UniProtKB/TrEMBL annotation:
Top-rank lineage group of the source organism: Bacteria
Family annotation (PANTHER family): CYTOPLASMIC PROTEIN, CYTOPLASMIC PROTEIN-RELATED
Identification of the protein by name: MmcQ-like protein
One Pfam entry name: YjbR
Organismal lineage: Bacteria, Pseudomonadati, Pseudomonadota, Gammaproteobacteria, Moraxellales
Species assigned in the record: Acinetobacter equi
Length: 128
């Protein structure tokens, strides 16, 4: 079975301008791009959980499709989902959901922040 927190950390770390903090408690990692949260990892009763930002339409569709996706735990139920470890959760799906959450936050950034992100992405590409 997929290690939810480990995979999320790897994927989030690969995304430009991502920072990780623990503002709530030591075992709750909060991933941000330009200080806007797009991913949280934590455990509830020793069960790993991820919170990801989504659109209300996407959130509803995902909850209806996958038994391991629920409304966001301690978050706005329309804009956040919680993902629980499950044998049917694939790396591809999780990667897509994390990237989608990141892109949704970027889409809503101010123009100057988007420009800064483009510069950082260009620098990152030139170093590869």
């Amino acid at each position: 079975m997929l290690n939810l927190h480990h995979f999320a950390k790897q994927q989030a770390s690969s995304l430009t301008a991502t920072t990780c903090t623990q503002p709530f408690m030591p075992n709750c990692d909060v991933y941000k791009v330009f200080n806007k949260i797009y991913l949280m990892t934590f455990s509830l009763n020793h069960h790993p959980i991820l919170n990801l930002k989504t659109t209300p339409q996407e959130s509803e569709m995902l909850r209806d499709t996958y038994p391991f996706i629920h409304t966001g735990y301690h978050m706005n139920k329309q804009h956040w989902i919680s993902i629980y470890e499950h044998e049917d959760l694939s790396e591809d799906l999780l990667k897509d959901l994390i990237n989608s959450s990141y892109q949704l936050v970027i889409f809503n950034l101010a123009k100057t922040k988007k420009q800064q992100l483009q510069i950082l992405q260009s620098i990152k590409k030139s170093r590869q």
